[in-house]
Specification:
This protein has about 110 residues and is of the alpha+beta class. It has a single domain, classed as Ubiquitin-like (UB roll). Helices cover about 15% and strands about 20% of the residues. The protein has a five-stranded mixed β-sheet with strand order 2-1-5-3-4, covered by helices on one side. The model has no long low-confidence stretch (mean pLDDT about 95). The structure holds FE2/S2 (inorganic) cluster. The site of FE2/S2 (inorganic) cluster has 12 residues, from loops.
């Protein structure tokens, strides 16, 4: 049974579970601020459920997910994923970055 570390919590999930749904079922949220109310409910449209997969293997993003990750203010070079499009297959360490979309990735500590 894979585990997911997120926001200081460790939850158990099943192989094949959707990451966004697993977090929310555990009372955790992949959203910042008002995005928890205004999101697209897992349809890869709003881009607010982004997370960074810090550790663990996940499948490559689909064309649909890649398309959304290229839309500003997201930056495809930040390596974020839409949690609503990630299937849990392995133990994961997941981080949410600041910003409405979770887009404020600070790679150089500035
Ligand atoms: S919930 Fe909107 S893109 Fe994931």
């Amino acid at each position: 049974m894979p585990t997911v570390e997120f926001a200081g919590e460790t939850i158990e999930a099943n192989v094949g579970d959707n990451l966004r749904r697993a977090l929310m079922d555990a009372g955790l949220s992949p959203y910042n601020g008002a995005a928890q109310y205004t999101n697209c409910r897992g349809n890869a449209v709003c881009g607010t459920c982004t997370v960074e997969i810090v550790d663990g293997d996940v499948e490559e993003p689909t064309t649909r997910e890649r398309r959304r990750l290229k839309m500003p203010p997201l930056d495809p070079d930040d390596g974020l994923r839409l949690s609503c499009q990630v299937t849990i297959e392995d133990d994961l360490v997941v981080e949410k970055h600041p910003g409405y979309w979770g887009q404020k990735v600070d790679r150089d500590g500035t």
